[in-house]
Amino acid sequence: MYDIELKRITKTYLGTDEPAVKNLSLNVEKGSIVTLLGPSGCGKSTTLRLLAGFERANAGSIALAGKVVSDENTWIPPEKRGIGMVFQDYALFPHLNVFDNVGFGYKAKDRRARVMEVLELVNLKGYEKRYPYELSGGQQQRVALARALTRRPVVVLLDEPFSNLDADLRVTMRVEVKRIIKEAGATAIFVSHDQKDALAISDKIVVMKEGVVQQIGSPREIYQYP
Ligand code: ADP
Ligand code: ADP
Q1: Which protein residue's CA is at the shortest distance from atom 27 of ligand 2?
Q2: Would the CB of 18 count as within 6 Å of ligand 2?
Protein backbone atom coordinates (compact mmCIF):
# COMPACT_ATOMS: atom_id res chain seq x y z
CA MET A 1 0.00 0.00 0.00
CA TYR A 2 1.26 3.45 -0.92
CA ASP A 3 0.77 6.50 1.28
CA ILE A 4 2.05 8.86 -1.39
CA GLU A 5 1.28 8.51 -5.11
CA LEU A 6 2.42 11.04 -7.67
CA LYS A 7 1.23 10.36 -11.21
CA ARG A 8 2.75 12.18 -14.16
CA ILE A 9 3.10 15.48 -12.33
CA THR A 10 4.22 18.52 -14.27
CA LYS A 11 4.71 21.96 -12.76
CA THR A 12 5.73 25.04 -14.72
CA TYR A 13 5.94 28.27 -12.74
CA LEU A 14 4.31 31.38 -14.20
CA GLY A 15 6.74 33.37 -16.28
CA THR A 16 9.10 30.45 -16.88
CA ASP A 17 9.50 28.25 -19.96
CA GLU A 18 10.99 25.07 -18.55
CA PRO A 19 8.94 22.95 -16.14
CA ALA A 20 10.46 22.73 -12.64
CA VAL A 21 9.07 19.18 -12.47
CA LYS A 22 8.43 17.13 -15.60
CA ASN A 23 6.05 14.19 -15.83
CA LEU A 24 7.15 12.90 -12.45
CA SER A 25 5.71 9.65 -11.09
CA LEU A 26 6.56 8.25 -7.69
CA ASN A 27 4.99 5.84 -5.19
CA VAL A 28 6.05 5.79 -1.57
CA GLU A 29 5.26 2.73 0.54
CA LYS A 30 3.53 3.13 3.85
CA GLY A 31 5.97 3.67 6.71
CA SER A 32 8.99 4.32 4.54
CA ILE A 33 11.35 7.27 4.41
CA VAL A 34 12.21 8.55 0.95
CA THR A 35 14.82 11.17 0.17
CA LEU A 36 14.63 13.44 -2.85
CA LEU A 37 18.29 13.98 -3.63
CA GLY A 38 19.85 16.24 -6.22
CA PRO A 39 21.57 19.55 -6.92
CA SER A 40 20.00 22.93 -6.29
CA GLY A 41 17.28 23.69 -8.84
CA CYS A 42 16.47 20.07 -9.76
CA GLY A 43 12.89 20.33 -8.49
CA LYS A 44 13.05 18.85 -4.97
CA SER A 45 11.35 21.74 -3.15
CA THR A 46 8.78 22.07 -5.89
CA THR A 47 7.85 18.41 -5.46
CA LEU A 48 7.54 18.92 -1.71
CA ARG A 49 5.42 22.06 -2.16
CA LEU A 50 3.12 20.23 -4.58
CA LEU A 51 2.63 17.46 -2.01
CA ALA A 52 1.97 20.00 0.75
CA GLY A 53 -0.49 21.92 -1.44
CA PHE A 54 1.50 25.17 -1.46
CA GLU A 55 1.61 24.90 -5.25
CA ARG A 56 -0.75 23.31 -7.77
CA ALA A 57 0.50 21.11 -10.59
CA ASN A 58 -0.35 21.87 -14.22
CA ALA A 59 -0.92 18.20 -14.92
CA GLY A 60 -1.02 14.88 -13.13
CA SER A 61 -2.49 13.67 -9.87
CA ILE A 62 -1.42 13.33 -6.25
CA ALA A 63 -2.93 10.90 -3.75
CA LEU A 64 -2.14 10.76 -0.03
CA ALA A 65 -3.18 7.78 2.11
CA GLY A 66 -5.17 6.51 -0.86
CA LYS A 67 -7.14 9.72 -1.33
CA VAL A 68 -6.71 12.04 -4.31
CA VAL A 69 -5.76 15.52 -3.05
CA SER A 70 -4.87 17.10 -6.37
CA ASP A 71 -5.79 16.44 -9.98
CA GLU A 72 -7.61 18.19 -12.81
CA ASN A 73 -10.88 18.25 -10.83
CA THR A 74 -9.77 17.94 -7.21
CA TRP A 75 -8.10 20.37 -4.87
CA ILE A 76 -7.67 19.62 -1.17
CA PRO A 77 -6.00 22.57 0.64
CA PRO A 78 -2.82 22.07 2.70
CA GLU A 79 -4.52 22.07 6.13
CA LYS A 80 -6.81 19.21 5.06
CA ARG A 81 -4.13 16.94 3.64
CA GLY A 82 -3.12 15.28 6.91
CA ILE A 83 0.48 16.32 6.43
CA GLY A 84 3.11 17.37 8.96
CA MET A 85 5.88 19.68 7.78
CA VAL A 86 9.35 20.45 9.05
CA PHE A 87 10.86 23.53 7.48
CA GLN A 88 14.53 24.23 6.92
CA ASP A 89 14.59 27.09 9.46
CA TYR A 90 12.15 25.19 11.77
CA ALA A 91 9.67 28.12 11.64
CA LEU A 92 8.91 27.94 15.37
CA PHE A 93 6.72 30.67 16.86
CA PRO A 94 9.20 32.80 18.84
CA HIS A 95 6.58 34.16 21.26
CA LEU A 96 5.23 30.71 22.18
CA ASN A 97 6.88 28.27 24.55
CA VAL A 98 7.69 24.71 23.56
CA PHE A 99 4.36 23.34 24.79
CA ASP A 100 2.34 25.88 22.82
CA ASN A 101 4.50 25.51 19.71
CA VAL A 102 3.93 21.76 19.72
CA GLY A 103 0.22 22.09 20.52
CA PHE A 104 -0.36 24.96 18.09
CA GLY A 105 -3.73 24.63 16.37
CA TYR A 106 -4.39 21.27 18.03
CA LYS A 107 -7.62 21.70 19.94
CA ALA A 108 -8.57 18.10 20.66
CA LYS A 109 -9.49 16.92 24.15
CA ASP A 110 -6.22 15.04 24.48
CA ARG A 111 -4.18 18.19 23.74
CA ARG A 112 -2.12 18.12 26.91
CA ALA A 113 -1.55 14.37 26.80
CA ARG A 114 -0.71 14.41 23.11
CA VAL A 115 1.78 17.27 23.42
CA MET A 116 3.50 15.48 26.31
CA GLU A 117 3.54 12.27 24.29
CA VAL A 118 5.28 13.82 21.28
CA LEU A 119 7.69 15.74 23.52
CA GLU A 120 8.65 12.44 25.09
CA LEU A 121 9.09 10.93 21.64
CA VAL A 122 11.56 13.65 20.66
CA ASN A 123 13.33 13.54 24.06
CA LEU A 124 12.27 17.00 25.20
CA LYS A 125 10.30 16.22 28.33
CA GLY A 126 10.89 18.99 30.87
CA TYR A 127 11.33 21.66 28.18
CA GLU A 128 7.62 22.62 27.95
CA LYS A 129 8.07 26.13 29.38
CA ARG A 130 11.20 27.06 27.45
CA TYR A 131 11.12 29.46 24.53
CA PRO A 132 12.74 28.75 21.16
CA TYR A 133 15.57 31.27 21.74
CA GLU A 134 16.57 29.31 24.87
CA LEU A 135 17.13 26.14 22.87
CA SER A 136 20.05 24.81 20.84
CA GLY A 137 19.65 24.15 17.12
CA GLY A 138 19.15 20.45 17.68
CA GLN A 139 16.52 21.08 20.34
CA GLN A 140 14.70 23.52 18.06
CA GLN A 141 14.65 20.87 15.40
CA ARG A 142 13.17 18.39 17.88
CA VAL A 143 10.42 20.90 18.65
CA ALA A 144 9.73 21.36 14.94
CA LEU A 145 9.52 17.61 14.50
CA ALA A 146 7.25 17.23 17.52
CA ARG A 147 4.95 19.94 16.19
CA ALA A 148 4.79 18.21 12.82
CA LEU A 149 3.67 14.99 14.53
CA THR A 150 1.09 16.32 17.00
CA ARG A 151 -1.89 15.69 14.73
CA ARG A 152 -0.74 12.16 13.92
CA PRO A 153 -0.14 12.90 10.23
CA VAL A 154 0.07 10.00 7.82
CA VAL A 155 2.70 11.87 5.81
CA VAL A 156 5.57 14.02 7.06
CA LEU A 157 7.51 16.32 4.72
CA LEU A 158 10.95 17.60 5.70
CA ASP A 159 12.72 20.33 3.74
CA GLU A 160 16.52 20.17 4.16
CA PRO A 161 16.13 19.39 7.88
CA PHE A 162 19.86 19.12 8.59
CA SER A 163 21.23 22.10 6.71
CA ASN A 164 21.34 24.43 9.74
CA LEU A 165 23.10 21.97 12.06
CA ASP A 166 26.84 21.71 12.67
CA ALA A 167 28.59 18.49 11.66
CA ASP A 168 28.38 16.62 14.99
CA LEU A 169 24.77 17.48 15.61
CA ARG A 170 23.95 16.54 12.05
CA VAL A 171 25.20 13.00 12.64
CA THR A 172 23.10 12.72 15.82
CA MET A 173 19.98 14.20 14.31
CA ARG A 174 20.06 11.91 11.26
CA VAL A 175 19.70 8.96 13.60
CA GLU A 176 17.17 10.74 15.77
CA VAL A 177 14.94 11.94 12.94
CA LYS A 178 14.84 8.42 11.53
CA ARG A 179 14.01 6.90 14.91
CA ILE A 180 11.29 9.48 15.60
CA ILE A 181 9.59 9.09 12.22
CA LYS A 182 9.68 5.31 12.47
CA GLU A 183 8.30 5.33 16.03
CA ALA A 184 5.55 7.72 14.97
CA GLY A 185 4.69 5.29 12.17
CA ALA A 186 4.67 8.08 9.59
CA THR A 187 5.56 7.95 5.92
CA ALA A 188 8.15 10.61 5.16
CA ILE A 189 9.64 12.44 2.23
CA PHE A 190 12.64 14.55 2.86
CA VAL A 191 14.65 16.82 0.63
CA SER A 192 18.41 17.01 0.66
CA HIS A 193 21.40 17.70 -1.52
CA ASP A 194 23.67 15.74 0.84
CA GLN A 195 24.43 12.10 -0.01
CA LYS A 196 25.36 11.29 3.58
CA ASP A 197 21.97 12.49 4.82
CA ALA A 198 20.28 10.35 2.21
CA LEU A 199 22.36 7.27 3.04
CA ALA A 200 21.79 7.57 6.76
CA ILE A 201 18.07 8.11 6.78
CA SER A 202 16.42 6.68 3.66
CA ASP A 203 14.69 3.45 2.82
CA LYS A 204 14.68 4.72 -0.77
CA ILE A 205 16.53 7.46 -2.57
CA VAL A 206 15.06 9.33 -5.52
CA VAL A 207 17.82 11.00 -7.51
CA MET A 208 16.47 14.02 -9.38
CA LYS A 209 17.98 16.05 -12.17
CA GLU A 210 16.44 18.96 -14.06
CA GLY A 211 12.91 18.14 -12.97
CA VAL A 212 12.96 14.43 -13.73
CA VAL A 213 13.67 11.29 -11.73
CA GLN A 214 17.02 9.92 -12.81
CA GLN A 215 17.18 6.89 -10.54
CA ILE A 216 15.21 5.29 -7.69
CA GLY A 217 16.53 2.64 -5.34
CA SER A 218 17.61 1.67 -1.87
CA PRO A 219 20.81 3.35 -0.64
CA ARG A 220 22.67 0.14 -1.55
CA GLU A 221 21.26 0.08 -5.05
CA ILE A 222 22.11 3.72 -5.61
CA TYR A 223 25.64 3.62 -4.21
CA GLN A 224 26.87 0.10 -4.93
CA TYR A 225 28.48 -0.24 -8.29
CA PRO A 226 28.72 -3.62 -10.05
P1 ADP B 1 15.47 22.48 -5.59
O2 ADP B 1 14.58 22.38 -4.43
O3 ADP B 1 15.93 21.14 -6.09
O4 ADP B 1 16.59 23.44 -5.38
P5 ADP B 1 13.31 23.94 -6.84
O6 ADP B 1 12.13 23.06 -6.85
O7 ADP B 1 13.40 25.00 -5.79
O8 ADP B 1 14.61 23.04 -6.82
O9 ADP B 1 13.44 24.65 -8.25
C10 ADP B 1 13.27 23.97 -9.48
C11 ADP B 1 13.29 25.00 -10.60
O12 ADP B 1 12.14 25.82 -10.48
C13 ADP B 1 14.49 25.94 -10.55
O14 ADP B 1 14.83 26.24 -11.88
C15 ADP B 1 13.94 27.17 -9.83
O16 ADP B 1 14.62 28.32 -10.18
C17 ADP B 1 12.51 27.19 -10.31
N18 ADP B 1 11.59 27.79 -9.32
C19 ADP B 1 11.41 27.39 -8.04
N20 ADP B 1 10.49 28.14 -7.42
C21 ADP B 1 10.06 29.03 -8.35
C22 ADP B 1 9.10 30.08 -8.35
N23 ADP B 1 8.37 30.36 -7.27
N24 ADP B 1 8.93 30.78 -9.48
C25 ADP B 1 9.64 30.50 -10.58
N26 ADP B 1 10.56 29.52 -10.67
C27 ADP B 1 10.76 28.81 -9.56
P1 ADP C 1 15.20 26.37 -2.06
O2 ADP C 1 16.14 25.73 -3.05
O3 ADP C 1 15.37 25.88 -0.65
O4 ADP C 1 13.77 26.38 -2.52
P5 ADP C 1 15.66 28.97 -3.11
O6 ADP C 1 16.57 30.04 -2.63
O7 ADP C 1 15.87 28.28 -4.42
O8 ADP C 1 15.61 27.90 -1.93
O9 ADP C 1 14.16 29.52 -3.14
C10 ADP C 1 13.69 30.37 -2.14
C11 ADP C 1 12.33 30.91 -2.58
O12 ADP C 1 12.43 31.57 -3.84
C13 ADP C 1 11.31 29.79 -2.77
O14 ADP C 1 10.09 30.18 -2.20
C15 ADP C 1 11.16 29.62 -4.26
O16 ADP C 1 9.82 29.32 -4.61
C17 ADP C 1 11.54 30.98 -4.79
N18 ADP C 1 12.25 30.84 -6.08
C19 ADP C 1 13.26 30.00 -6.36
N20 ADP C 1 13.66 30.13 -7.62
C21 ADP C 1 12.87 31.11 -8.14
C22 ADP C 1 12.77 31.72 -9.42
N23 ADP C 1 13.55 31.36 -10.44
N24 ADP C 1 11.86 32.69 -9.58
C25 ADP C 1 11.06 33.07 -8.59
N26 ADP C 1 11.09 32.53 -7.36
C27 ADP C 1 11.98 31.56 -7.15
Answers
A1: 13
A2: no
> Residue with the nearest Cα to atom 27 of ligand 1?
13
The string of pLDDT tens digits covering residues 17-29 is: 999 999 999 999 9
Q: 32 CB contacts (<8 Å, ≥6 apart)?
A: 187, 188, 203, 204
d(CA 63, CA 26): 11
Nearest CA residue ID for atom 12, ligand 1: 20
Q: Cα separation of 59 and 171, whole Å? A: 38
Q: Which residues contact 28 (CB under 8 A, 6 or more apart)?
A: 2, 3, 4, 5, 34, 187, 189, 204
pTM: 0.89
Closest-CA residue, ligand 1 atom 18, reads 20
A 10 A CB-CB count for 64 gives 23
Give bridge partners of residue 159 from the DSSP assignment. Answer: 191
pLDDT over 90 at 165, yes or no: no
150-to-39, 128, 201 alpha-carbon distances in Å? 32, 14, 21
Burial class (CB in 10 A: 0-12, 13-18, 19+), 191: buried
Question: For residue 225, what pLDDT is reported?
Answer: 59
Contact assessment for residue 119 and residue 125, using Cβ atoms and an 8 Å cutoff: yes
Q: What's the gap in Å between 164 CA and the centre of ligand 1?
A: 20
pLDDT at 142 over 70: yes
Alpha carbon of 185 to ligand 1 centroid (Å):
31
